[in-house]
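Entry type: protein chain
Record version: 2
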Amino acid sequence: MTLNVCVVGVGAVGVELLRILRQRQFPIAKLAVLARSARPIQVDGTTYQVQAISPEAFEGQRIVLFAGTEGEKGAAVTYAKEAIRRGAICIDNGADFRLDPHVPLVVPEVNPEDLRHHQGLIANPNCSTLQMVVALGPVYRQFKICRIIVSTYQAASGAGSKATQDLMAETSAMVRNQPLPPPQALPQRLSFNVFPQIGPFEELGYTSEEWKMVKETQKILHDDRILITATAVRVPVIDAHSESIYFETQRPTTVEELKALWKKSPGVALVEEPAYPMPIEAAHRDEVFVGRVRPDPAVKNAFTCWVVSDNLRKGAALNAVQIAEQLIQG
């Protein structure tokens, strides 16, 4: 069976969607690529003819993948209803519908059963949430988790291609001892620096990114009793987010049992000590890498781990394509 597939958006996530659809040989009858303006683009040597987006462009589409843009109202807000009305199933990488109670928020390795309840629209989680729940989902099912404290170390590409350009331009200026250009996409200089702000500040002084990790994790795991505290930090890395995750389980377990569980968990790659996963190794990879697993010496049934994953690949585009694959598999 082949399907008409549509990709909306040709930024960093949109390009990664096109790349993954090709790499995974998704069964496409006809591919449409939509953006604000018509133009040809090239991805890995393949030319795609981008069409200007319009309601009529969704006619006959079966799967529509909205690339989404963090921090802005995505195209799905304007066009998802039009696409659904024409018979499409929409998978949105943007933030607009993630917490809508009528829209499932899905990670195929964690809660694929939620796809049964979609009404034509399915949301992709935030990239930092996604890699955490891939790692902690099997732990939650086996041992229950009652507390999570997570600190993220997030790459520039998570803020879009302009943020990556900021980092590169600033770094180039620094090493040449030239004046630094003002950042175009980030609130602070990123080269040779870190700062604890991703998204605007909201309730209780937490940023929108930090609240996403709290609320999206609770929704995916169907448990709003999990106590979650997040600190989201931008670091001078191009691709792949890292996270230090502390968690407490309700049922007793050990480091050995956790490692055994992760070794057999889909989407997870356990990196045994003394090695540990790093962004430079996780970039352009599908897996969520888990390492530095250790018990808390002061708290019973408490553990800390280090989790790394490519934020554009698994954290956005790959997960959307995996949702589409799950849909056609039934």
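Comment: Residues 127-143 form the longest helix (17 residues).
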